[in-house]
Queue: 2 jobs
Job 1
Amino acid sequence: MGILEKIADIEREIARTQKNKATEYHLGLLKAKLAKFRQALMEGDAKSGAGKGEGFDVVKSGDARIALIGFPSVGKSTLLSTVTRTASTAASYEFTTLTCIPGVIEYNGAEIQLLDLPGIIEGAAQGKGRGRQVIAVARTADMVLMMLDATKGEKQREILEEELESVGIRLNRAKPEIYFKPKKTGGINITSTVPMTKCSEKLINLILHEYKIFNAQVLFRDDYTSDEFIDVVVGRRVYMPCLYVYNKIDQVSIEEVDRLAHLPNSIVISCNMKLNIDFMLESIWGLLNLIRVYTKKRGEKPDFEGGLIVRSGTTIEHVCRMVHRTMVDQFKYALVWGVSVKFSPQRVGLGHVLLNDDVICLVKK
Ligand SMILES: Nc1nc2c(ncn2[C@@H]2O[C@H](COP(=O)(O)OP(=O)(O)OP(=O)(O)O)[C@@H](O)[C@H]2O)c(=O)[nH]1
Ligand SMILES: [Mg+2]
């Protein structure tokens, strides 16, 4: 039996199995098996180069990267042409776009790379259409913009979420705080800092045995499900924000627009009528979690024109590396002005976390 059939088999079995206390272990084990086969499928791709394909190796540029994911003809290319200076052919037939076309959104002084991609459909993760290449690009993004057709209901969203989920992309979810370390001896040692209500020790043992792991240290820092535990064991999951963008609202009733706009992480737009595009950009900016910091030389004024765009949570060390590759070795301390420090300027070390609009002066040894 091929790996695709095995996957399909397990998926059917999971769908067939009722979820309750009695089937908990059976389901947990099936899911562990499923994750294992899916991982094997992806690794096989990487080895044979099937995940690459021409036109899909787009160089990362700018301060962040967004992947446009959606069914054919929802208006992805129209959006690219609306918010960037790049024109991507849009047409009323499906699968107009066959490769990856990058554009740049200029916003708040930052350059955000927006990737127009071919439309994907159900079965994409298993190789339908250009699905796998599209998904490989999505994994490299900082955020997914899932474009949906407001006239088509919620089905598209569910299918796409499922596709991304099956290749290890986790949307709008935090990475589970589970410490997991395989060992050479000592058996399986499970501890937790809170009561575990969603996943039992027995299930953890079963899952690990499925992966032929018999010695390991496991620490749950919060209450997580067995799915989340499997994610940690399998590894190589990517966690990223996703904005659901319902396009073509010029085609639906005002009540429907209102309903869609109130769904979580969702906004409504019309590319053709240029409705709500500004709000979409604002929402993207918020989700990307970018901040701007300024560097200055000693005795000089900061350069408020320039500035560095960095992810929130960035430390002085990260800024050093952006300034020059030898800076970390030569680093003595930094002076920081702004809201991240109690008084301005304040002397800080490499580990100091920066906030928006901070001014930094790096001092060398
Ligand atoms: N009514 C309406 N039509 C739109 C809107 N935005 C795009 N379209 C139309 O939808 C069709 C498909 O647009 P594209 O931008 O080519 O869609 P795509 O998602 O890039 O499609 P593929 O490349 O095939 O995946 C075109 O005929 C557009 O004119 C909109 O806001 N309202
Ligand atoms: Mg297109």
Job 2
Amino acid sequence: MTRAEWNPRELSDLTGRTYVVTGATKGLGFFSCDQLARAGAHVILTGRHPNRLVTARAALVHRVPDASVETLLLDTSKLGSVRAAAATLRARGALDGLLLNAGVVHPPRARETVDGNELVLATNVLGHFALAGELLQPLAAGRGRMVWVGSISTSLWKYDPVDPQLVTGYTPWRAYVQSKIAATALGFEADRRLRATGVPVRSLTAHPGYSMGGRTIGIRGVNEPSRKKRFLANLQAPVTQSKEDGAWSLVRALTDPEAESGDFWGPDRVTRGLPRRAKAAAVTRDPAIAERIWNLCEEATGVRWPFAKAARAAR
Ligand SMILES: NC(=O)c1ccc[n+]([C@@H]2O[C@H](COP(=O)([O-])OP(=O)(O)OC[C@H]3O[C@@H](n4cnc5c(N)ncnc54)[C@H](OP(=O)(O)O)[C@@H]3O)[C@@H](O)[C@H]2O)c1
């Protein structure tokens, strides 16, 4: 299937491939799993609540009766949970792809995690940095790829995350946008480092435009928007899309054989549409900023990506 012909509703056969998705209990993570499973892939749904994982798995199997799917507890805001899940996944062998999707947009009142990090940064960035590093060897063994999830908000608010933990000047929105700038910058920095060290793993970034639960099919326990939410979402229909459609860019970055390491994917009409290559905000493409974020992640997580080991293991 060439780029021009890419049809997100009809993916190539992915039988025999294994993908791990964070934040798979609802939203874009759930629909990414749905699309991967429909194409025949084995999908590992991860999430922070056992009950929500059970519900999401049942909903997925209901929608895709022959889905090959399993679940794994993984709270990206807790480094202990990330390490435990990574150990389980490493024991399984090669991986084809890792979708670093879990995210908190509207943070709760508590701002700090058990590890002492700012919650939005921890959930959206630090946990994923640690997880991707911990899974570098299985990804290299599978000649797989990792996909980071960015946001168009990074083009509207171009914060340079000089204070990523937001010790001063915290607002929930700033925390969110900074976390997405950091995640996107890490996607590009990981690409540079993987190439430089000869590790056969691709690092890509994708964004879902503006995807709303209120414009998405209702699924019990997974997507149950109120009538008011649906009404308000439908008013914004010209510039929004469903989470099913929002997952297209993420899934294309994860599975298109022609998608290259360092790519940035998003909807063709920016907030909605078919997945195509897009241009990321300048602040996310600055290697000096990315290196600073990388160093912060190493320090905050204690994880150093095992580039040399992964390159050797893949030979
Ligand atoms: N929707 C958009 O328009 C949009 C735009 C730009 C970027 N994004 C990004 O896309 C990703 C998914 O967004 P979405 O719209 O699908 O959001 P969503 O519907 O709120 O789903 C978020 C998912 O992340 C999970 N999650 C939250 N905190 C977690 C944690 N500590 N550990 C593990 N999982 C956790 C949630 O699990 P629970 O069920 O346990 O809450 C849920 O499964 C996020 O990274 C978001 O920043 C979305």
